[in-house]
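User: Predict structure, ligand magnesium ion.
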Amino acid sequence: MIDHVSFAYKKQHPIINNMSIELFSEDFTAIVGANGTGKTTLGKLMTGILKPEKGSVIIDGLDSSKISLGAIGKKAGYLFQNPERQIFAPNVYEELSFPLEVKGMKKEEIERKVNESLTIFQLTHLSKVFPFTLSQGEKQRLALAAILINEPKFLILDEPTTGLDIERKNTLSTILGRLKEKGIGIVMISHDGAFIGKHATRIIELAGGEVIGDNKKCLGSKSKTDHCA
Ligand SMILES: Nc1ncnc2c1ncn2[C@@H]1O[C@H](COP(=O)(O)OP(=O)(O)OP(=O)(O)O)[C@@H](O)[C@H]1O
Ligand SMILES: [Mg+2]
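Assistant: Predicted complex:
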């Protein structure tokens, strides 16, 4: 939950201005708005990568300013606009097994989970490959797999369809559909109207550091706010 949050990179230029949004895990929420309106900034606030200057971000009951990024990662996963930024292991298999080793999981259990994940994300044939040599779509599937191995309750995706061909978009659609069925809340920042149209149950539009449209709020609210037609 975004509770009266304000954020600026430079003092004179607030990017997020006293914004409040309550997210629900049953939704596929799309966040839309022009370039530079603060969508990525909001996504980073939602997952604790950035901390609010004013207000608070509450993730599954916990204040993002008071818990570690590791603890947040178990509740909300964030897929970067450029997935390369979150890949670091020497091969695909270890990218997925490492977080489980850190958790202290048993070797057999790790193998089972990683192999299952490799199958779901169509990466089994690439398990020994150096991640940086993967294609854009493969890197994205690996980054998503690595986030989901933590079993977060929420997934926040920043422009996940950019650079994907039709077939890869369809693969992503199938994966997200499955996650939705599992009850994982999805928040997707995107300019891809067709993809949003296919999946989103809620669309939040940002401009000038504020929410200027939110169909869920309009559907649910008794007293209509300005942007509810
Ligand atoms: N690290 C940073 N330091 C300073 N300014 C930044 C930083 N990151 C983003 N900004 C500025 O904050 C504003 C919002 O950026 P943000 O990346 O959140 O926009 P966006 O809505 O995601 O845009 P896009 O659709 O192009 O991805 C922009 O004016 C950007 O230049
Ligand atoms: Mg962005």
